[in-house]
Write a structure and sequence with these properties.
The chain is an alpha/beta fold. It has helices spanning 32-46, 49-63, 73-79, 98-111, 125-137, 147-152, 154-162, 177-190, 208-216, 218-231, 246-252, 281-284, 322-329, 340-354, 360-372, 394-400; strands at residues 18-19, 22-23, 69-71, 83-88, 116-121, 140-146, 166-170, 195-197, 237-241, 262-268, 286-290, 293-297, 333-338, 381-386. The structure holds pyridoxal-5'-phosphate. Pyridoxal-5'-phosphate (PLP) binds next to helix 11 and helix 15.
């Protein structure tokens, strides 16, 4: 439903799954009935208080929500600008925000009577979260993962296997997240009757972008309540990193109707936009269709998908969720980049400064906050989405310092 007279509405997508001109469901005919069924079941579930109650209960008992909103006093004092609050998604069970979405989707799979779950994963965080909820619900779990990512993320591969998941290596393309997603979609086409595809970010065909957003909105809803209780007001700015765009849309969405709250999405700038080696789809890409939706993509002049680069595995996806494409063009959210070097520096800054090891992905958001905060005043408030913890990135960080674990 579009509210007349406003440039941006928080009520998207429309009936076709479009956020403005972005989104949609560009999928093979064989998957259309499954997507149609999923939309129907999702709408019923979201309107069912019993379903919402079970989702909330699991977030409380199993995930450990609400996650704290932490005032980073040391960093705030050091920069001398706005107060910095961290929304601690790193403290969730399995160490990142991904589990919020997995809890919601496994409940949907159960409601649909599907007992075989498939997923794609990049750095392995979504694979671990999926394997975790599959163990909890005693469902079969197959995770597709690029062979290059398997080599880079051994601890998460071990976690998935211990949790009972089958990790299938994908060797096509660059053997990373995009290729894993291709393979998961291929699997779904062949086994659509008994299989639920548990997608990990706000991308893919309708209804996935909307569904993942609505299961991640809890991040922003809690932030709003926690800040109102503590400071009696809304934040001046929100900052979150952008992979496919799920932790950021979850944080931003409950604030989008408040024009005074500025939102910043931080893309992975890799070696810098000018180098061509980055993963900044909005700042350095063009609209096109990938994995079932129209959005901004990294592509060459012929429309071939370009390889994405980032120091952080899983931020190297060449696309971004379609709602972000709309937020970008409508200017409601500002998109910035942080380079590999800036993210690594921000990793150390938070680790030494507050005793919190962030995920390298989250460190991209911190890197931008570090630039933004000094331009603001001490009465102002910035909330940074700390999407995950950094244990699994330690080998990468040490490698960049010329050390080994
Ligand atoms: C997966 C992941 C991201 C990126 O994915 P989004 O869908 O953009 O949130 C960011 N941070 C962490 C810790 C992740 O695991």
């Amino acid at each position: 439903m579009i509210t007349p007279g406003t440039a941006y509405t928080t009520e998207g997508p429309d009936a076709l799954g479009q956020f403005g001109r972005f989104g949609g469901a560009y999928m093979p005919e064989t998957l259309m009935p499954a997507l149609h069924e999923l939309r129907g079941v999702l709408a019923g579930a979201m309107a069912d208080p019993a379903f919402r109650g079970r989702y909330r209960q699991l977030l409380t008992d199993f995930v450990g929500r609400p996650s704290p909103l932490f005032l980073a006093k040391n960093l705030t004092r050091e920069l001398g600008g706005a107060q910095i609050f961290l929304k601690r998604e790193d403290l969730n069970h399995t160490g990142a925000h991904k589990i919020n979405n997995c809890v919601g989707q496994i409940l949907l799979a159960e409601r649909m009577g599907k007992r075989r779950i498939i997923a794609e994963t990049g750095a392995g965080q979504h694979g671990v979260a999926t394997a975790t909820v599959c163990a909890l619900f005693r469902m079969e779990c197959v995770v597709y993962m690029g062979a290059a990512d398997i080599a880079r993320q051994a601890p998460n591969v071990a976690r998935m296997r211990l949790l009972g998941a089958e990790v299938r290596a994908v060797h096509t393309g660059t053997a990373t997240l995009k290729d894993a997603m291709n393979e998961a979609l291929r699997d779904w086409i062949t086994r659509v009757d008994d299989t639920y595809y548990l997608l990990g970010t706000g991308a893919g065909p309708h209804p996935y972008p909307q569904m993942v957003r609505d299961f991640q909105r809890i991040i922003g809803e809690e932030t709003r309540e926690q800040l109102l209780a503590r400071c009696g007001r809304l934040p001046d700015a929100l900052v979150a990193c952008i992979g496919g765009g799920s932790n950021s849309i979850g944080l931003f969405h409950p604030f989008l109707a408040e024009p005074a709250v500025r939102c910043y999405g931080v893309e992975a700038g890799g070696l810098g936009l000018a180098s061509g080696k980055h993963a900044a789809c909005l700042s350095g890409g063009r609209p096109g269709v990938l994995h079932g939706n129209l959005t901004y993509l990294l592509q060459d002049d012929d429309g071939q998908i370009d390889d994405a680069h980032s120091v952080s595995a899983g931020l190297d996806y060449p696309g971004v969720g379609p709602e972000h494409a709309q937020l970008f063009e409508s200017n409601r959210v500002q998109y910035r980049v942080a380079t590999d070097d800036e993210a690594l520096a921000a990793f150390h800054w938070l680790t030494r400064g507050e005793g919190i090891l962030p995920a390298l992905k989250s460190a991209h958001a911190l890197a931008f906050a570090r630039r933004l905060v000094p331009t603001m005043t001490p009465e102002q408030i910035v909330v940074v989405g700390l999407s995950g913890r950094g244990d699994k990135d330690m080998a990468t960080v040490l490698h960049h310092q010329g050390e080994t674990v």
